[in-house]
What does this fold into?
Amino acid sequence: MRLDRFISETTGLSRKESAKVVQSGEVTVDGSVQKKGAFQVPEHAEVIWGGEQLEVLGPVYLMINKPLGCVCANHDSAHMTVFAHLDIPISDKLHTVGRLDLDTSGLLLITDDGKWSHRITSPKKKCPKVYHAWVSEPLIEDNIKAFAEGLELTGETTLTAPAVLEIINEREALVHVHEGRYHQVRRMFAAVGNNVEKLHREQVGELKLDPDLTPGDYRFLTAEEVALF
Ligand code: URA
It folds into this structure.
């Protein structure tokens, strides 16, 4: 790989900024200053900039406990993005696996592996997701049947796929869905005359949110967790 590209991929600097850093003699490769952006970095070379050794990361897979008030986008002019919580130089190359609303918290997966995220988000895969919902009106047994039979969401012509509603108490429930329609869970409750006050995703497929992660915390997935999808 060219040295300017190597710098860009390991630091998050643009190619132009990386070329400047190289030209100004700030980078050493295996102990020698290297000023040519086109220089081919040998495998296992020791590349140092600003006193730090730079290393190309392999594919990145992580889970974050998404806090309220941030958006699942790489850039946003109005709100903080979920990537602002990551201390990773290449965060511009990452994407969220699906999205959670601004006012939804919980398990969010982030990666740079498009094939992996496609396996989770593709409607054909029917990957189940579990949400914990707190609602304003009392939940009733009939709601379980309505969620199982499919609901008509405002502005849509097809019913939602069968979903499981597990009532925890009068105003709390777990919802298991495998679709990913816009604001789906909130709209499902609206379809039965209720209103979601708080929504938190607990699980995607077999993967549960790590209880040690407080809102805004993240960790890399283990190889076993990556292999779940
Ligand atoms: N359903 C919603 O309504 N919001 C989310 O963020 C996810 C699912």
